Amino acid sequence: MESPVKIFSGTGSMYLSKKIAQSYGQDLGNMTVSRFSDGEMQPSFEETVRGADVFIIQSTFPPADNLFELLLMIDAAKRASANQIIAVIPYFGYARQDRKDQPRVAIGAKLVANLLSSAGITRIITMDLHADQIQGFFDVPVDHLFASSIFVPYIKSLNLPNLTMASPDMGGSKRTNAYAKYLNCDMVICYKQRKVANKIENMTLIGDVEGKDIVLVDDIVDTAGTLTKASDMMMEKGANSVRAVCTHPILSGKAYEAIENSKIKELIVTDTIPLRKDIQSSKIKVLSVADMFADVFKRVHNFESISSYFLIS
After folding, report:
1. Is 156 a catalytic site residue?
2. What's the CA gap between 309 and 24, in Å, rounded?
3. Most buried in the list 62, 81, 131, 175, measured by CB within 10 Å?
4. Which residues contact 113 (CB under 8 A, 6 or more apart)?
5. Is residue 122 within 8 Å of 131, Cβ to Cβ?
6. Over 90: is that where the pLDDT of 196 sits?
7. Where are the alpha helices (DSSP H) in 122-242?
8. What pLDDT score does 198 carry?
């Protein structure tokens, strides 16, 4: 007898989960999150999940309640005898803490992986991890999806005459090189130096951008300091236009203001993280990952290949 599929959502990703469930062809599962007067939460499934393949969708962006709510939902599914418990984390928070890069710091990504495993997941589905090696932090299957499968068709649709891909830092050069090879175009690299997080001390450009239509590639955009500084520098050096594709729009602090005031023409992001409702930017375009995740759910449930989504990896 085939296990039924149940799709549930944490409160932080409800906006995306509804679109995924609709694309999948069924309603979200019924659940509630009760709160005590001190703020302590208690998720509860309001329908049976016994013997079901349970997909629990929740990105783990701040506040930390999003991560802890996911952990509690996983534990509840395990104790309710679910057949499989698949943690669907479109944006995997704490991924920037993937190694001990200075004395006396935590490796947050490994800690989160341990917490998820201890809670009881049997598989994880995520997108564009900040560091590929995080997959090795898990002892369960990890389906690591790439937003390139929706970014590449959009870039092609722009029909840019002198397309050149750009990496905002040395760490992203591998990703940018993969785009450049697939799209058969040139690439340039920005070299930046930082003394503290989220603050660029110095940035230089490696490569020629004069007369080129630049597309910067990154996995996250946080304060937007790197993207805006890079785009302004490239325009000053003669670029025809500068756009950016970034999977996860964290957009903290004065990021929206920085984007609006920069020379960047367009910032293309996905909906793994919701945009702020109180601030709008005409330069930001959102491409949804809902259809991709819904299709991957079907393939995982039916034990089918998902390699077609590794367009650029």
Report:
1. no
2. 17
3. 175
4. 134, 137, 138
5. no
6. no
7. 148-157, 173-183, 225-236
8. 52
